[in-house]
Design brief:
Distance between the termini: 49 Å
Largest sheet: 6 strands, mixed
Number of strands: 14
CATH superfamily: Metallo-dependent phosphatases
Radius of gyration: 18 Å
Order of helices and strands: EHEHEHEEHEHEEEEEEEEH
Structural class: alpha/beta
Mean pLDDT: 94
C-alpha cells in the first residue's frame, strides 16, 4: 500500500502585499497550488491508495479559501481519497463552512479504514496558537480510539510535533499518559506537520515522521531572526508487512529567498 504525505499548504486565493515582517514573505512566493501540481505530476496516482494532509491547509482561515482549496484538491486527486487534519493557521468554523457547508467549531477528529489500515486524524490545533493544545476531552477521545484499534494496524496524523528537540519551535505540551497510550497502541506510524522540515524518528517507541511544506520553509538564525525560503516537498510512504517506509521528495529545486524576518522587532512594533 502506498500513500502520500502532504503538509502546510498555507493556501490563499490572494495573498495581501506587505512591506515588511512575516506577511512580506508571500509577496514573491509561488502559489502552493502550483507546487501541489508539480508534486502530483511526479507521482503515478493510479498507484496511490490515499493521501494525508497534516494541517495548515490555508494561511489565514477564510471559508472561501477552504472551499477553493477543496475544489482544486479534488480536481487534482480525482478518485484518490484524502484525509485531513487542521493546524494553527486553520480556523475551525471557517474550515467546516468551506469544506462541508456546515456550522461547527469543534476539533476535527476522524477515523478511516482503507483496506487493512486504520487512519486516525487527531486535531491538536488551536487557531493562532503556534504551540498547539490537547484538551482532556481530546486525550480521552484518542485513548478510546487507540483502544478500539488494538487488533488493526493504525497510523495517527496530527499537525503539531510531539518531539521537543525536533525543531526550534516548541512541541505541543503532552503528559506522561499520552506517551503511555501511544506506546501501548497498535500504531505503526505517526505523521505530523507544522515544522515545514522533514524528520524521521521515534516517539513512544513508534515510527514518527514529518514532511516538508508545499509553501515555505523557515531557518532559525537565532535572536528571533528567521530566514524564509520557498519550499515544495512531500513524502511517498509505503505500508507493507506491518511497517512504514518514507521517501521525502522535492518537487522544486528553487529555494529562493522570500525574506528575513526579525520577530522580536515585529513584536515591539505591533
Amino acid at each position: 500500500m502506498k500513500f502520500l504525505h502532504l503538509s502546510d499548504i498555507h493556501f490563499l486565493r490572494e495573498y495581501p502585499k506587505a512591506e515588511k515582517g512575516y506577511n512580506a514573505i508571500f509577496n514573491d512566493m509561488t502559489s502552493p497550488l502550483i507546487q501541489l501540481k508539480k508534486a502530483l505530476i511526479m507521482v503515478d496516482l493510479s498507484k496511490i491508495d490515499f493521501v494525508i494532509i497534516t494541517g495548515d491547509l490555508v494561511e489565514s482561515g477564510m471559508y472561501e479559501d477552504y472551499f477553493s482549496l477543496k475544489c482544486e484538491l479534488e480536481k487534482l486527486l480525482g478518485n484518490v481519497p484524502y484525509i485531513l487534519t487542521l493546524g494553527n493557521h486553520d480556523n475551525k468554523a471557517a474550515f467546516y463552512k468551506g469544506w462541508f457547508n456546515k456550522e461547527c467549531n469543534e476539533p476535527y477528529n476522524t477515523v478511516n479504514e482503507i483496506d487493512n489500515l486504520r487512519i486516525i486524524s487527531f486535531d491538536n490545533s488551536v487557531y493562532k496558537n503556534s504551540d498547539g493544545f490537547i484538551s482532556n476531552e481530546q486525550y480521552k477521545w484518542l485513548e478510546n480510539q487507540l483502544k478500539d484499534s488494538s487488533k488493526k494496524d493504525t497510523i495517527l496524523i496530527l499537525h503539531h510535533h510531539l518531539i521537543k528537540d525536533q525543531f526550534t519551535t516548541p512541541s505541543v505540551d503532552i503528559d506522561d499518559n499520552f506517551e503511555k497510550i501511544i506506546r501501548e497502541s497498535s500504531l505503526v506510524g505517526i505523521f505530523v506537520g507544522h515544522t515545514h522540515h522533514p524528520f524521521n524518528g521515534s516517539f513512544a517507541d513508534k515510527p514518527y515522521f514529518s514532511t516538508g511544506s508545499l509553501s515555505f520553509i523557515g531557518h532559525d538564525e537565532g535572536n528571533g531572526i528567521v530566514r524564509f525560503e520557498e519550499n515544495a516537498q512531500f513524502s511517498i510512504c509505503t505500508y507493507e508487512d506491518g511497517k512504514i517506509s518514507v521517501e521525502v521528495i522535492s518537487a522544486s529545486n528553487d529555494n529562493k529567498l522570500l525574506g528575513i524576518v526579525n520577530f522580536k522587532e515585529d513584536e515591539l512594533s505591533s
